[in-house]
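User: For my dataset I need records formatted as: sequence, then structure tokens, nothing else. Please produce one.
Assistant:
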Amino acid sequence: MRQTEKTAIITGSGRGIGRETAILLAKYGVNVVVCSRTDSEVNSVKEEIEKVNSKSSVVGVKCDVSMPHQVNSLIRLTIEKFGNIDILVNNAGVAFNKKLVDTSEKEWDQTINTNLKGAFLFTKAVLPFMFAKKSGVIINVNSGAGKVGFSNLSAYCASKFGLRGLAESVSLEVDRYNIRLMTVFLGQVATNMWKDFDYSYYEKNKRMMLNAQDVGVKIVEMIYDTKKYKNGESVEMYNT
């Protein structure tokens, strides 16, 4: 099924869930803007999208989601290239496996700035364009750690609890504009983020973890199934 004249921004789309979501949306014919802090990851996703759907336009941008000037530059580029923004997937995230007393201020700031501030900056930047069209979809990729606290994950949990509150509040603000802001809460996903977080645990348990592509399928379903997934909707996907 081909969707025409739709444009999506997927943060943290250099790998894992973001990458799979970007590729799936491209298969639908959506114009895709991929971003990552790493040029090699951006270029890799661009090449993959061009292979799976040569008719889908793709722009790759190196972007730190916590930096306002980089976010605003990406938004300007998107509008110059495609003229509109219809879909935003706030997916970029980091985590540190540390007790609070061992967490540095730099690690705390990096976690909050990437996981929470990044979603704030991108959501704030795209909403005026969605308000003007009175349509749009925003998906926040959250975690079970956004509902329940876990030891050695205080910074991550704080960021994800904050992301949950942000989504619940903003969904009320956008409702009259026919914009849907929704959240997917995830269990452990077999991605490089988990591998970097705790390699030995990842290797032992990866077969029981969620698959990044399956999460991407769910996100795309949430975007397009307007009858099933309403504004403010929360979806949970946990390990089997």
